[in-house]
UniProtKB/TrEMBL annotation:
It is found in: Cell membrane. The chain crosses the membrane at residues 47-69, 90-113, 119-144, 151-170, 216-234, 246-263, 275-299, 311-330. It comes from the Bacteria. It is a multi-pass membrane protein. Belongs to the UPF0718 family. It comes from Clostridium tagluense. The keyword Aminoacyl-tRNA synthetase does not apply. This is Permease. InterPro entries: DUF318, UPF0718_permease.
Length: 338
């Protein structure tokens, strides 16, 4: 048992948290740049370089592996698979499908449109839409590198529950008539499922890595920059006053602040890490992350072109309410996770 514990500890420290990289960057900052990482400027430089490289390394490896797996589930096969399952099982499958699609909220909407055009139940398509930007295998492992396994697994579980419950509620409300008419008129071509060779899957995975990098690199740099500023320049007393555990509205405020922003989970994590390091409750931190990734303003604007205002309002209300509840629950039971 002790050997297994040591193996997991080594994987967590050397592969996920990349302690070796942190030490390498520390030597660079102190010996080459002549800055102490215990001071604000040196600490900010270390935070920025270390977190940026760590995220990009993890991102490259994980997106490649996930895309390789995803290559076995082309849209035609997915539509056929989901089309044969109804009810809560369909919502669960739709939510799980979102975990193998490393997309931001805006990138998930075209697939959401395709699923609706194919005649899939509305609840299943919304379970996918909630899950896809919120929870994926890459976010699970990167969350582990920042917050540890307990918090990462709990985040994924509650994210999936939110996707399943949200999709199920929308399904029960019978809101199909609030999907814009043109979506249902899109021609659904039942294309033949063509198998890919191993080399084609590798090429596809490489292209996915390039595509995801192109979409997220700027947001990662911005997120790491904000995280470095929070971590080293903003006094802890100010952060505790605004979103600390003593503020009963901290979760509501974090959710409200997160919605207008646009980033994916990879760009949001450094900010969350810095807030958590300043003593902000884990529930408040996760609520901010979920709001940014699942309810970003650009994705809501895009979704408004696909569904009518009533359905859009119900979707936002369900997801926002779920995020707030999750935030308060995580804060209340944080002693089990931290």
């Amino acid at each position: 048992m002790n050997v297994i514990s040591q193996i997991f500890s080594w994987i967590n420290n050397e592969i996920l948290k990349m302690t070796w990289l942190s030490n390498l960057i520390k030597g660079l900052v102190e010996n080459v740049f002549g800055l102490s990482i215990k001071e604000r400027l040196g600490g900010s430089v270390h935070f920025f370089i270390y977190d940026t490289i760590k995220i990009f390394i993890l991102l490259s490896v994980l997106i490649f592996l996930i895309s390789y797996i995803q290559s076995y589930f082309p849209p035609e096969r997915t539509k056929k698979l989901l089309g044969n399952i109804k009810g809560i099982k369909g919502n669960i499958l739709g939510a799980l499908l979102g975990t193998i699609t490393p997309f931001c909220s805006c990138s998930s909407i075209p697939i959401f449109i395709g699923f609706n055009a194919a005649g899939l139940p509305l609840g299943i398509t919304f379970s996918f839409l909630i899950s896809s930007p919120l929870v994926d295998l890459a976010s699970l492992l990167i969350l582990m590198s920042f917050f540890g396994a307990k918090i990462a697994i709990a985040y994924v579980v509650v994210g999936l529950i939110l996707a399943v419950v949200g999709g199920s509620i929308i399904d029960k409300l019978g809101l199909e008539k609030y999907v814009e008419g043109y979506v249902k008129e899109i021609e659904n071509v039942d294309a033949e499922i063509i198998g890919m060779t191993r080399n084609e899957r590798i090429s596809y995975s490489k292209e996915q890595v390039k595509d995801v990098f192109h979409k997220v690199w700027l947001y990662v740099l911005i997120g790491v920059g904000i995280g470095a500023a929070i971590h080293n320049w903003i006094p802890q007393s100010i952060i505790e006053t605004v979103v600390g555990n003593n503020n009963p509205f901290a979760v509501l405020l974090a959710t409200a602040v997160g919605i207008p922003m646009y980033a994916d989970i990879f760009g949001t994590l450094p900010i969350a890490e810095a807030l958590f390091g300043k003593g902000v409750g884990i529930g408040t931190v996760l609520s901010f992350m979920m709001a940014v990734t699942a309810l970003s303003l650009p994705s809501i604007i895009m979704l408004s072109k696909v569904v009518k205002p009533k359905l859009l309002a119900i979707f936002v209300a369900i997801v926002a309410t779920g995020i707030v509840i999750i935030g308060y629950l995580f804060n209340a039971f944080s002693f089990l996770l931290v």
